[in-house]
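This section describes the prediction task in plain terms. A model, or a person checking by hand, is given the sequence of a single protein chain and must write out its three-dimensional structure as a string of tokens. No templates, partner chains or ligands are provided. The sample shown here is typical of the held-out split.
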Amino acid sequence: MVTTKTRNLRRSTVRTQRATRRGVAMLAFVVAVLVLGALVVWQAVTTALASRAYLGHYLSGGALYASESGIELAVREVMQAADLDGDGAIGTISNDGNDGNDPSLLNGSFHVTASGTDYVSYGAWQQHVRVTEVTVE
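The expected answer:
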């Protein structure tokens, strides 16, 4: 025979088990949300770093192209034996110490110095600088 006291004890035990299950489920949900949030933050940081690295590579490539342009123009002056940029010397490009009249590109510039048959071109693209050296024989 089941008494009222036994029935109430069973009901409270069932309620306690349900509450425990709900508590475990809620804890699992909170942990899952925290893990997913951490993954989203990690991915955002990684993407930002990769974008910054790519930008540096892109700008450095622009400086290299500017520097190579300076070498090409200097070699052209030497081959034609003419001062094409009007700086007073053949084979140097804007080597007058005045950065204001350097040949300019979209976001950069270059100038070339000469020492005998050695030519050094300094190409700048925004804040990146590349140096290219060449010997003409």
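For orientation: The longest helix spans residues 4-80.
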